Amino acid sequence: MDRRTFLHRTAAFAGVACLDFPAFAEKVGTLGGPRLRLGILSDVHIREEEQTQVLRHALEYFRDRNVDGVMVAGDIADWALESQLRWFAETWYSVFPKDKAPDGHHVEKLFIYGNHDVKDAAAILKKYKVTEAQAEAEAIGPRRAEVWKKYFKEKWEPIYMKDIKGYKFIGAHFTTFDGVDNLQEFLDSVKDKLPTDKPFFYFQHMHPKDTCSSPWAWGQDNGKTTAALSRFSNVVAFSGHSHITLTDERTIWQGAFTSVGTASLSYIIPPGGRENTVQSGSKEVVHSQMKKMNTRDGKHGQLMTVYDDCITLERREFVYDQPLADNWIIPLPYDGSGALSPETRAPKAPVPQFPASAKVTLSRAMGTDNQDKEEDQITVRFPSVLKKNAGCRAFEYEIQAEVKDYDTYKILGTKRIFSKGFYLGENQDEEDVVCPFAISELKENREVRFIVRPMNSFGGKGAALCSDWISTATA
After folding, report:
1. Do 324 and 377 share a structural domain?
2. Each residue's pLDDT tens digit, 163-194
3. Element (H, E) at 436
């Protein structure tokens, strides 16, 4: 490629985070053949052999896309049992016999242990429903090297490096919740083998602190990974653990390097603070009219394609077999400017708007709150804002209750809510969004209305849509 063509293509992608599929196809059509394709998964959490069905489907999808390798960023065996790792390995080899695709080319294993994989027998007995004999016989933690070699036919090393078609991949197994031990020393030892003219890739289980989905996401290390990787602007890091949806645009980050969350092939964990979510691990009971939403059918993965001038990341779910959102595009070479950081992207991000025909409707009836207490409720209902009906999909919604107070209007309360399918493709998110307010949360014997605003992942709010007024008076 001559310099003029290189500069033209780099300019075309500068600052791009994602393109819709027609635009994406047009751009990619100018890039020539891909250098590398990789399937990316994390947090498989196998408990029973039947759970390998979704894993098999994801691996078959990657196989059919002609990948050169598959990354799994930890938490393979949910209860840290050898049998669970065996089921994973058997599924892998049934799709890629002897690590080969149907045409005979080698498909590299890029797997690591997560925190779930390496618990010892005592930890398994304390948390999971297994017998003492099973825990003693099957605990991976004390035998992690032995079990790894048995099923994956390769030596286990705490940190390792592999080469796929000239691209370096560094995998670091989970050690502690503080982060990966000795990563700085390992990077120093291989520094002369790392490229400077193209990207290399790193993956661990926990998010490097203050990178993707930060600062609110749980599951970050203590920052030593971030410090170690910050010396390399050309590293792209992948991490799991938090199960954060790939429909959240904050799941990709750039600062000194690039960091991408890998979500989960098992289930999605929505962030707390919404009317229909609870913060993961929180014991706090917050008064709410809705129970925690069920996101067990959220099973996400990515397909990475590397070109000379960019990296593309297809975001996909493997239950309904649909794309989750437009493909992410990482322009190359990365200059350290943070072009894809949330801070840079937020002011430019499209803001969702309700279609012109959209209306907010209200109904009143007796219902129950999330503690099954009977409540007199007003339910707010409005259409889901999707790209196909409004040009830009909403990530969540803000709903405010407003009361008339003589000649003034006052906000009584504000709720945030996710639509039922916000973590899935658009075809699974077409139902109306509903949000109940208890009369006990409002002022009695007043006229109230509800103001709804669609929001993007960065907190940008679209124009308000208002309901009619309704009385809170007791019938």
Report:
1. no
2. 999 999 999 999 999 999 999 999 999 999 99
3. strand 433-438
